[in-house]
Structure formats: structure tokens, C-alpha cells
Amino acid sequence: MSETLTERQTEVLAIIRDYMQVNGIPPTHAELAKAIGVSSTRAAADHLKALERKGYIHLHSDKPRGIQLLTESFYELPLVGLVAAGSPLMAVENVERRIPVPDGLFSSRPTYLLRVRGDSMKDAGILDGDMIAVQKTERARHGQIVVARINDEVTVKYLDSQSP
């Protein structure tokens, strides 16, 4: 960050951060314009260009949600393509790659990421090819979305603790 921000730029940056915290993705120019109270996407784009010029964000012009915060610190989570057979623990040899994740994206830090195959959870907004963050825990509540091992297969479902 080479230059200090004006009060308005600080406000716009905070709105972008808050939006990403709540939604998990950056806002579009139209969403940002609405959030900062301007009527044109051009005004939002001008703010974004100023934030990029000052080193607070990077804009990917080829993407509609192409705002990348540069002021955030990151940690890496392993993307596990396959879950090891036998032991329910994640096996290091199954790590496809490590994905940088901004601090504060999750209320509590997940253990790893899994790629979803299939569309049985599309009503929950989880689509084929999505990555989901998994936090390993010993207990889950009725109605939570869980990653469960059934025999030697792993599945993503709502927990129905009412079932026998």
C-alpha cells in the first residue's frame, strides 16, 4: 500500500471487505454502486481504479466479480480430491494442491477443502464442481450439512438425526 486512502476510499474498501465476508465473493460493479450509494457503475469503477492504483486491490477486468483484496492476509487449506479409505483422517498423499484463503472468510477455520461431484445438494447452493470447506468435528446437529463417510464412500448431505 503505497498511498493513504481518502475517507471515501476507506469506506468503499470496507464495503467491499464486508460484502466479501458475508457473500464469499466480491461484488459486481452494479452491486458495489448500489452499496456505496451511487447511481452509475462508472462511479463505482472509478473508486475501484483508485483503490487499485494505490495498491489495495487488484482488478481482473475479464471477470464480472474481478476484485481481489491485496490488504488481506491469507492461509492455505489443502484441497483433498479423494478421502483415504480406512482411517477417517485426511491423508497427506491425497492433497491435490493448497488453496490460499483470506483470513476472516470463515467464522472458524476449516480443516480442508473438498471438490463436490454430483448435484444432489443443488437446493443448498452446492453445485457439481464447487469446492466446500470442511471443518472436522466429532459432533454435528440435525439439519447441518455434513461430509459423512458411509462404508468406504464419502457424501455431502443434510444430517437427518431423526432417521433410524
Summary?
The chain is α+β, with helices and mostly antiparallel strands and 164 residues long. It has helices at 7-23, 29-36, 41-53; strands spanning 57-59, 67-69, 74-80, 95-102, 112-115, 131-134, 145-150, 153-158.
Strand content: 25-35%
Query: What CATH architecture of the largest domain do you see?
Result: Ribbon
How many strands, which pairing sense, and closed or not: the largest β-sheet?
A: 4 strands, mixed
Bulk shape: elongated
User: Strand arrangement, largest sheet?
Assistant: 4-3-5-6
CATH-derived topology of the largest domain: Umud Fragment, subunit A
Rounded to the nearest angstrom, the radius of gyration is 20 Å
What count of structural domains? 2
How do the SSEs run, as a string of H and E? HHHEEEEEEEE
> Ends: how far apart?
57 Å
Number of strands: 8
Mean pLDDT: 82
Q: Which residue ranges are poorly predicted, with pLDDT under 50 across at least 5 consecutive positions? A: 82-92
